[in-house]
Hints:
The structure holds 2 protein chains of 2 kinds.
Chain A: E1 3-5, E2 10-14, E3 19-21, E4 24-26, E5 32-38, E6 44-50, E7 56-58, E8 64-68, E9 73-78, E10 87-94, E11 103-104, E12 108-113
Parallel strand pairs in A: 2-12
Antiparallel strand pairs in A: 1-4, 3-9, 5-6, 5-10, 7-8, 8-9, 10-11, 10-12
Chain B: E1 5-7, E2 10-13, E3 19-24, E4 31-38, E5 42-50, E6 53-57, E7 64-68, E8 74-78, E9 87-94, E10 105-106, E11 110-114
Parallel strand pairs in B: 2-11
Antiparallel strand pairs in B: 1-3, 3-8, 4-5, 4-9, 5-6, 7-8, 9-10, 9-11
Amino acid sequence: AQSVTQLGSHVSVSEGALVLLRCNYSSSVPPYLFWYVQYPNQGLQLLLKYTSAATLVKGINGFEAEFKKSETSFHLTKPSAHMSDAAEYFCAVREPFGNEKLTFGTGTRLTIIP
Amino acid sequence: DSGVTQTPKHLITATGQRVTLRCSPRSGDLSVYWYQQSLDQGLQFLIQYYNGEERAKGNILERFSAQQFPDLHSELNLSSLELGDSALYFCASSVGPQGATDTQYFGPGTRLTVL
């Protein structure tokens, strides 16, 4: 069964510093991978997705993620944190065949320090 | 705004009661998904409908049921409610089984509180 592990339930970075949120997946075949962001009292918004094309994926709001098969990772990065990036971030995995359900990680709450 | 609408936004009810959550997908989307977000279980997939038919089932309790109507809106019915059913229920929609290009867009959620 596919799964994702997000290391660090809480991450704090200073404004302007690098943001790195970690996600490792477990799947018998290279899956599709997603990062979603959830702002307080809102639904989930897609940041970016990997679907077996380019391994470096650029998303919205300056975020990007790199798929590394050898490390079974899909870490999310942003070069310079902004106060508006404070939110909860979810990594999700989906098998490339069969049904389309998403399996989510436990989430990482990102706090930006002024 | 994702284009997915959910009603009601908040729902407060008592144990043993039954409630119905409603979801309208984005225009043109044929697939509807229901997810539950709770503090102890995280975000979990419940069920998926595609063009009116059940396509996939996840960790959905027997007390819960769902359906998708001809106009493609979906309802999630929760009965014999327990305190542990208190959670945020999300609906998502996508075009349908299109492989890599299929993306799920989430609604704002319905927050259910069972007292």
